[in-house]
Every structure is written in C-alpha cells, then in structure tokens.
Design goal:
The protein is mainly alpha-helical. Helices cover 67% and strands 0% of the residues. The chain contains ten helices and no strands. The protein has helices at residues 2-7, 14-27, 31-44, 51-64, 68-82, 87-97, 101-108, 126-130, 132-145, 149-162. The longest helix is centred in the middle third of the chain and has 15 residues, at 68-82. It is globular.
Length: 171
C-alpha cells in the first residue's frame, strides 16, 4: 500500500491505500508502523473520508503505546473537528484568525496538523458524531493523567456543557 502511494501520491485511491496500510499494521499489532502512516494520511489527505476514523485511531494507538499526551491531543482534535460548536468555539476561532504569525507557527508544531487546518467534512454523519463525547472525555482524562489540570478541567467542563443528556453526566 505504501509503495502505491509513494509512486502515485495524487491518485484518487492514495488515501484508501494509506488507510488500508494503517488497518493492516493495526491487525498485525505493529503500531510503530501504523502511527506514522496514519499521520501521513491525516497530513497529506486532509479532506479524505478516512481522516475522521484515522484521527480516532491515532488517539487509540498513542494510548496503547503509552504516549498519553499525543493520545489526548488526537482525542481533543477529533472532538474539536467533529463535535458541536458553541459560542466559545466561535470566539476562539476569531481570536486564532487574528493571532500573530509566531503563535501560528508554534501551533503548527503540535501533533501532526493542527485541528483548525484539517478540513471539517461538510456533513458530520452519525457514526462520526457518536464518538465525540467519548473522545472529548478521553482527552480530558489523559490530560489529567499527565498533570495538565487546566486543560483537563476545561475539557471536562466542555463535556458536561455539551453532553448534559448522557447518563454519566450528573444532574
């Protein structure tokens, strides 16, 4: 699969080939190989139908190899890209648009491609949206686990605000 993408990177099937490579590496329990291929798919094929599933998988893969910060970042990215937006999100997006170039360069050094640079699908289907609450919670959980309490608290608060109807959210 990877050889195909290397030879035909602009093929309409290149993203599918990379995704198939990721799935194959995961099945073979070769997460050390799956992670860079998944990151390549997310980075190089931002509008691919496979990006949501791949971002989700990257959270899980990094969790399984004890890269908890990276797991938290991917879970947070998934929730940011595919979850509901609220007034705070809109205000933050406007602030980022006005951010200085140095801040933008610093943000670009985070895991792979920053969430705001990935293309959000025109339509977030039910299968994609279904994972958002769990990924938002997982991001908060792992940030708490690595001692980033401010970030964890903000994400837990967002979870409680956006998903009040879930059974695990107190009244």
């Amino acid at each position: 699969f990877r050889a195909f993408v290397k030879e035909f990177p602009k093929s309409e099937h290149a993203d599918r080939a990379l995704f198939n490579a990721v799935v194959t590496y995961e099945a073979a329990k070769q997460l050390d190989e799956a992670i860079p291929v998944a990151e390549q798919l997310v980075r190089d094929y931002k509008t691919s139908e496979f990006v949501p599933k791949t971002v989700s998988m990257l959270g899980s893969f990094n969790e399984r190899v004890a890269e908890f910060r990276r797991a938290a970042e991917y879970y947070e990215r998934y929730a940011a890209l595919y979850g509901p937006a609220d007034d705070e999100d809109k205000a933050e997006a406007k602030a980022k648009a006005k951010a200085k170039p140095a801040k933008a360069a610093k943000a670009a050094k985070s895991v792979g491609t920053p969430a705001d640079e990935l293309a959000r699908p025109v339509k977030v289907d039910a299968k994609i949206a279904e994972l958002v609450p769990d990924h938002l919670y997982n991001a908060a959980f792992w940030y708490e686990g690595i001692g980033e309490y401010g970030k964890a608290t903000a994400l837990y608060t967002r979870y409680l605000k956006l998903f009040k109807s879930r059974k695990d959210v107190p009244d």
